[in-house]
Design brief:
Layout: E1 7-14, E2 23-28, H1 36-46, E3 51-55, E4 64-69, E5 74-75, H2 79-91, E6 101-106, E7 109-116, E8 119-123, E9 128-131, H3 134-144, E10 153-156, E11 160-165, H4 169-173, H5 179-189, E12 193-199, E13 207-213, E14 218-221, H6 225-236, E15 244-249, E16 257-264, E17 267-282
Parallel strand pairs: 2-3, 4-6, 11-12, 13-15
Antiparallel strand pairs: 1-2, 1-17, 3-4, 4-5, 6-7, 7-8, 8-17, 9-10, 10-11, 12-13, 13-14, 15-16, 16-17
């Protein structure tokens, strides 16, 4: 199917209030005229970590429906595209919050977002975990050139991330991993990639996070929502961060994203701000 003309388009920077410091997502509004093949071509062309397409909901329980594509594949859910697209939907008048709540339909189901001023809080999908074989942990440590502190786990929140804690934020910042090896490991374990984190000891950002997904055409994600949700699910077991924390991500790519995490019983809420950097029309 050829791309329809005159589609409203926004490029939104997520997990920042300052343009060009967070993680951009391309958002195509009112995308009913596009099929999956056209969506995938557009996502490959934007060459961002994700491009989203806003559609009418298929159920009255949602305010809109979202399809999310990396340059290579469709995802059932991703955090930063969800928050960025919600910002675009509100700004573009596609939907309005009802009693402060916006409901998004996506491949992972219907997700609620709380609108709190310029911060959007996503009620994250429930995480499940999978153990990693000792041989794969040894390979992982060789790939990273660092020792994993507790035992790494695969966390599934729609995307599947291999979560690794390192000794501290400095160890995370200095990583220069083998992308070919991460691609091979990701394909074999059927995961999106590897997210690593380490404690910073700083008041304004308790942990430093980096996410590597070369198998999806994303060597390093500037600020990754699903990766941070997975880290939060991993950390919740320890109780080290009480009711929540703020993480930083993207410094090695010239960004400075801030991701807020809030724990509410079994719920993990992912919080972040967003700002529109580009607005216009997508044409064939």
């Amino acid at each position: 199917m050829s791309v329809a003309r005159g589609l409203r388009f926004k490029q939104v920077d997520v997990f920042t209030r300052v343009p060009f410091r967070g993680n951009p997502v391309a958002v195509v509004l009112e995308a009913e005229g596009l099929d999956a093949a056209a969506m995938q071509r557009i996502a490959g062309w934007t060459n961002l970590s994700e491009t989203t397409f806003v559609l009418p909901p298929s159920t009255g329980a949602a305010d809109y429906r979202l399809r999310i594509f990396t340059p290579r594949a469709e995802l059932p859910f991703a955090g930063h595209p969800t928050i960025g697209s919600a910002h675009a939907v509100l700004e573009g008048g596609i939907a309005k919050a009802n009693n402060g709540i916006l409901r998004q339909e996506c491949g992972a189901g219907i997700l609620s977002l709380e609108v709190d001023g310029d911060t959007l809080w996503l009620d994250s999908p429930e995480a499940t975990d999978t153990q990693v074989a000792e041989s794969d942990i040894a390979l992982l440590e060789r790939v990273l050139g660092r020792k994993a502190e507790p035992v790494p786990l695969i966390l599934n929140v729609g995307p599947r991330w291999l979560i690794v804690e390192l000794a501290n934020a400095s160890a995370v910042a200095s990583l220069a991993p083998d992308m070919a090896a991460i691609t091979e490991l990701s394909n074999r374990l059927e995961i999106g990639g590897i997210t690593v984190y380490g404690a910073s000891g700083e008041a304004d950002a308790a942990i430093h996070v980096r996410s590597f997904a070369p198998a999806h055409g994303i060597p390093e994600d500037p600020v990754c929502g699903s990766g941070n949700i997975s880290v939060a699910a991993y950390l919740r077991r320890s109780g080290r961060f009480g009711a929540g924390y703020v993480a930083r991500q993207g410094l090695q790519l010239g960004r400075d994203g801030r991701v807020s995490i809030r724990f509410d019983g079994d719920r993990i809420l992912l919080g972040g701000s967003a700002v529109t950097c580009i607005e216009g029309t997508l044409r064939a």
